[in-house]
Amino acid sequence: MAIYIALLRGINVGGKNIIKMAELRSTFEQMGLLRVQTYIQSGNVLFESDEDEESLRKRIELEIDAVFHISLAVILRTADELNFIAANCPFSADEIAEAETLSDAESLYVAFLPKEPSIESLARLEIYQTENDQFRARGREVYLLYWHSILKSKLANNLPKLDVPATVRNWKTLSKLVTLANAMEDSARL
Q1: Which residues fall within 8 angstroms of residue 82, CB to CB, at 6 or more apart?
Q2: Do residues 3 and 79 make contact, with C-beta atoms less than 8 angstroms apart?
Q3: Contact by Cβ (8 Å): 83, 124
């Protein structure tokens, strides 16, 4: 059994695609997924399953569409993958600290993708990179560092140029998901 983290794209944002976390948790449990828990309203679900990522992702997307009438992308990562992502941030501590001193909001984010973006799509995104909006791609993740605000960023607004669905989480959320996933793994070993 693996601990998975499902990252749902585009729910509970701006009053659209509203899903209550209790209902989402119940839906995952009714699908036969184990030890389901949610974290904050942006669509983060931790659970246990022995299914492979691709069939599990498709099944979750179909079930959300059937139950909530919302068609959305679900990005899955295992607890091990999430730990690796958190441990391998390509931005230096100095870069992050500098961005945080200039920003009144979160500065470090990760865009999670279902597959690695093409070199061509990364080149299209690179046009929007500035000294205040930086990205670094690593596999199926794109790390984003903003010196001002993600809300005002042309880089953030052009993530669709990657030609694959992306769902973005700030570093604080990623860190909490890592903590929750590790606690689930620890309790499974007992």
Answers
A1: 5, 174, 177, 178, 181
A2: yes
A3: no
Structural domains in the chain, sorted by start: 2-84+177-189 (3.30.70.1280), 87-170 (3.30.70)
pLDDT in tens, 90-141: 999 999 999 999 887 899 999 999 999 999 999 999 999 999 999 999 999 9
* Residue carrying the six token digits 């230096």: 92
Give the pLDDT confidence of 158-175 residue by residue, as tens digits.
999 999 999 999 999 999
Q: Return the bridge partners of 45, or none.
A: 6, 38
Amino acid at site 50: D
Q: What is the pTM of this model?
A: 0.94
Ramachandran area for residue 112 (φ above 0: left; ψ -120 to 50: alpha; else beta): beta
